[in-house]
Write a structure and sequence with these properties.
The chain is of the alpha+beta class. It has a domain of about 140 residues: OmpA-like domain (60s Ribosomal Protein L30, Chain: A), CATH 3.30.1330.60. Helices cover about 40% and strands about 10% of the residues. The longest helix has 25 residues. It is found in: Cell outer membrane.
Length: about 220
């Protein structure tokens, strides 16, 4: 009996040890002691710039889709309008300023603006109204220093793509949507092996030496030796 009790105790301790080992391996604060150095720091993003560059050059990755997703993630791509109006309201202007700031960072890209309406009114009237809204957005972006050669107000979707299916007035349907449409033809950085630099431009600039800041402050700034 005593031998059987010892066996039960040993099995219980072994099971507790296994449970403890599992809890340690699943705990990110302690897992690093049981895995190779840097395992927690590496979240899978290292080397993405080189990987993207290779995939774009061999056609494996849809570069326009990637940049469209980044635009949608970083900037509000939609502005809305009052009923039967193509006038930009203050909230829309603030959003379009954000869009312009993004667009200026990427001179390689072209953009389209799609106009939409709600379901009130005839289809022909709404199609023209949606186009006027898209054209109003393009004019404002151009006023922010964006070349009109990179902007296109496309034929409106009119009332054909509502966000909210209702035949009554609905502000969320009265909108424009700005999207990345492609590359500027003949731009020197397009598809020449510098895709990663375009995508990660902010990181590239952060690596510039301090000496490039000489003269900005107008004081006695001296670059580090």
């Amino acid at each position: 009996m005593q031998g059987q009790s010892m066996i039960r105790i040993s099995l219980a301790l072994a099971s507790l040890g296994l449970i403890g080992a599992c809890s340690v391996s699943n705990d990110p604060t302690t897992r690093q002691f049981y895995e190779e150095a840097g395992s927690i720091t590496d979240n899978g993003d290292f080397g993405n710039a080189t990987m993207n560059n290779t995939q774009i050059m061999n056609g494996e990755k849809a570069y326009v889709y990637d940049l469209s997703k980044r635009f949608a993630d970083e900037v509000t791509s939609t502005v809305t309008f009052a009923f039967n109006s193509a006038t930009l309201e203050p909230a829309a202007i603030n959003t379009l300023r954000e869009q312009a700031n993004f667009i200026r960072q990427f001179p390689e890209l072209t953009f389209r603006v799609y106009g939409h309406t709600d379901l009130v009114g005839s289809q022909a009237y709404n199609k023209a109204l949606g186009l006027r809204r898209a054209q109003a957005v393009v004019r404002f972006l151009a006023s922010q220093g964006i070349s009109t050669s990179r902007l296109e107000a496309v034929v409106s979707y009119g009332e054909q793509q509502p966000l909210i299916f209702t035949e009554t007035r609905e502000r969320r349907n009265r909108r424009t949507v700005t999207e990345v449409s492609g590359w500027v033809a003949g731009h020197p950085t397009v598809l020449d092996g510098r895709y990663a630099e375009v995508i990660y431009r902010d990181y590239v600039r952060s690596a510039e030496p301090r000496s490039t800041l000489t003269g900005i402050t107008g004081g006695d700034f001296r670059p580090d030796s």
